[in-house]
Structures are given as C-alpha cells and as structure tokens.
Amino acid sequence: MPESFVYVASAGANTVSIIDPASDTVVAEVPTGESSYGVAVAGQRVYVTNPIGPNTVSVLDVPSRSVVGSFAAGHGPFGVAVSPDGATGYVTNFSENTVSVFDTATDRVVGSIATAAGPFGVAFAPDGARAYVTAINAHSVQVIDTARRAVVGNIEVQRAPYWVAFTPDGARAYVTNQNSDSVSVIDVVSGTVTATIAVGDRPDGIAVSPDGRLAYVTCRSANVVSVLDLASGTVSAAIPVGSVPQSVAFTADGTKAYVANQGSDSVSVIDVSAGAVAGTITVVEPTGVGAG
C-alpha cells in the first residue's frame, strides 16, 4: 500500500503542512497561495483552494512535496473535491454562484456549472454519478449530474449548510447546518431529508468513517467533535478538541481522525477506537484537512 499522509491547509502561513500519521509530526511545509483553505487529496496530487486574493487552486505534487502549478477558479473558491475515478475535480466559487470543473490530467478548468446562492462544500457520490454542493445562502443542497455537468435537483435543508459527506455505500449524505446547530440526513435515492440530528454549536466540517459506522462533526463554537452513530442516527459522544475546530478527515484505515483547530493553531489527533484526543500538532491557523 502506498505511503499515506495528512495534508493541512494553513490560512495564516499560506502553506500546506504535511503530517506523517505514523509519527504524527509535520514532515514538510509547502508554500501555496494566499489564505489556503480547502484540500482534496487525489493520488499523486493534492488540490488546495486559495479564496482570498488570488482566487486560484494550487496543485501540489505528492512525491516531490512541491507546488507544480496553479489555475484560476471563480471568485471565492472554497470547497474542492475530486471524482472517485480521479479524472475530474470540482471547485465551489462562493462569490459567483458557480462550480468550476477541472480536468486533473491537465489541471485546467474545462467547464462551469451555475448553482444556487453561496456554493461552499462539495462531495462526489462514491459511484461518481452525482455530486452534492451545499448552497449556504439558499439553505439547500444542489444535486449535480456529473455526466451532464448540470444541476438536476435541489434539496432543502436547514440554515447555512456548510459541508457534506457521503456514506461509503452512497446510500446517504450528511450535511452540516451551521446556523441551525444540526446535521441533515439525506436519502440519496429519493433525494429527500429523512432526519435532522441536533449537534453542538455551529457545526462546520464533517467526515464519515471508512467503515460507515460513524461521522465526525466539528462544532466551531463548542470546541468539540460530535460523534454521530450512523446506525441509530444519534450523537454518541462529544470529544473536546482545540479552539474553533473547522474541518476533519479520517485516515484510510479509520484508526485516526485529524481536526484542524483554526483558533488555537493546532491539529487534534483523535484515536477513533478510544474516542479521545491522542495528540496535538502545531499548525498555524489550519483550515482544510485531507488524508490520502
């Protein structure tokens, strides 16, 4: 199995910190763009959005641990995701209500998709046929047909949906609603909200564990990670982390999760089996985090 690392965007240092999960130490810091934010790990590439100033996406080469290029997105690019087959990427452009489509072979934008107001979070379904985009100002999730490159559905959720994550089987999607202190559960086949789960104050990032049992939700104002038991649809625990936890990612084996604490210049390392923080790593103003 190829060696895996954790990639953390630093809005304060304009870098990506590369963490070795074997030692939980920073092994490299790669300069990127101004106010680096979103992170998507895709094989030998890592894509990092730079929403303040340049409105670009930096392309980091994994083997050389260096930025090998960048490309212009729309205005206010925050979220970024790459399709399961690794061929296509989506970037949400918050300030112009579009999603930029880019080809990972050329790292060039090849299309644009109009969305509802305030596109922010983005995730591809495991089969790659659909992508979900949260529209913060429209309080909805946009359903994109990836073959047609068009919005084909609109799912109303609660106030200010930020991030979205699918279960590994693609049956459900979970959406954090920051201004409603909740997570919406979407049945993907019917395209409807089937449940709403109350979580901590101002939920932001969300990740589903590789085995599909749990979801971790960062709660910015509560300084905790809420643990969702997906079988029961309830919060089973709250794990104290650093200040203003923003994003979270599981390692591929599901044994650890990494939480970017923007307010305390740190990354919390959670031991998933113990349900507790096992270590803390210093990173300046961390925002997005990805593992792969």
3D architecture notes:
The protein has no helices and 28 strands. By secondary structure, the chain is mostly beta strands. It has one domain: YVTN repeat-like/Quinoprotein amine dehydrogenase (Methylamine Dehydrogenase, Chain H), CATH 2.130.10. The strands form seven sheets. The chain has a four-stranded antiparallel sheet, with no helix packed on it. A four-stranded antiparallel sheet has the order 4-5-6-7, with no helix packed on it. Strand 16 (161-166) and strand 17 form a beta hairpin. The radius of gyration is 17 Å and the shape is globular. The N and C termini lie close together (11 Å). InterPro entries: Haem_d1_sf, Host-pathogen_enzymatic-act, Lactonase_7-beta_prop, WD40/YVTN_repeat-like_dom_sf, YVTN_b-propeller_repeat. Pfam families: Lactonase. This is YncE family protein.
Protein topology:
Blueprint: E1 6-10, E2 15-20, E3 25-31, E4 39-42, E5 45-50, E6 56-61, E7 66-72, E8 77-82, E9 88-93, E10 98-103, E11 108-114, E12 119-124, E13 130-135, E14 140-145, E15 150-156, E16 161-166, E17 172-177, E18 182-187, E19 192-198, E20 203-208, E21 214-219, E22 224-229, E23 234-240, E24 245-250, E25 256-261, E26 266-271, E27 276-282, E28 286-291
Antiparallel strand pairs: 1-2, 1-28, 2-3, 4-5, 5-6, 6-7, 8-9, 9-10, 10-11, 12-13, 13-14, 14-15, 16-17, 17-18, 18-19, 20-21, 21-22, 22-23, 24-25, 25-26, 26-27
